[in-house]
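Final report, results section. Input specification for complex C-07:
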Amino acid sequence: MIEPAYLTDPAEIYRRSFATIRAEADLARFSGAMEAVAIRMIHACGMVDLAPAIAFSPDAAEVGIAALRAGAPVICDAEMVRHGIIRRLLPAANATLCRIGDPRVDTVAQARGTTRSAAQVDLWREDLAGSLVVVGNAPTALFRLLEILEDGAPPPALVVGVPVGFVGAVEAKQALFARAGDVPFITVHDRRGGSAIAAAALNALAGECR
Amino acid sequence: MIEPAYLTDPAEIYRRSFATIRAEADLARFSGAMEAVAIRMIHACGMVDLAPAIAFSPDAAEVGIAALRAGAPVICDAEMVRHGIIRRLLPAANATLCRIGDPRVDTVAQARGTTRSAAQVDLWREDLAGSLVVVGNAPTALFRLLEILEDGAPPPALVVGVPVGFVGAVEAKQALFARAGDVPFITVHDRRGGSAIAAAALNALAGECR
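Structure output:
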């Protein structure tokens, strides 16, 4: 067999990737499990300058890890997020849920003139208490989550809120930062975000459970 | 009902997002369907400065659209990519395939000391002729694809090759640019990429089929 001219060993690829991130990114703000989360988020997007944009409540990573260990479900705003979660890392065979395909979502979205992403959030209530919510796609889903929390929906243990884009993404993440009250959160303070960064944060927490 | 303080109309969110991208991004290099592809790729990551990093063969978008219309399958390197494809946009109920979950992949990966992402590429051969390959995750998958094409595997119609990260991603995309021969391609000339950008490029092509 001819040796390929590129690195193929998965463990070595991870090792070198994380070494490059540690060498290039300013990780001084992060410690413990939150450092692992930041590294994984940077790894998912290929941008070391994501580091200064990452915002988090002080206990976010520890609370997320405890919730995962306790078997909490992971609620995702998009199937892309759900399929980015590395299930073998989950410490308690945690459920990974996404309600956007629920047959009721279209009706609710059209009746309210809102997105399907936001309409599904009303179907999160029964699983919300103590869960990990991971929003990687839709600003409207994060806005709607904050609304139902203000209306008294049971709080999740952690919100990873990193919707992406040009309309509402910055504002939704600012609202998470400002309005989430005592719900621990992890977010990114600019337009960046997305399913891969969202799933990566969750995967880092799951990886830290071992 | 209290009017929410954020935009909820999906069509208007898209319209304003694309208007912002047109206002802020330098799209002069793009025309026709490729402009739509560039806009969707930028939309997926929230970064207008992705525009100058996008590279493509002159006929990439048109060839991709023709292949989709002809019913070509879409082969994805990751389930995240596959689940980012908006199926209702596909013009011919095109198959969307990902082989990473195939039970043979683990064995091949371990025997060769390579990633599961790369090992699955050998299972793409039977669907490869005239297909659309969308690599959003693994540099090793893109490297392996180029290897099997050099070994005489039937060429796809288009390769959307945007693996992300710190080890091999830049190199794999440069190899696509340099070695793909007459296989049309769309790529990004830096560390950036990922499942969302990959799926967005495919979704743009599908959207242009109408």
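Chain B is about 45% helix and 10% strand. Chain B touches chain A through 50 residues (CB under 8 Å). This concludes the modelling results for the funded period.
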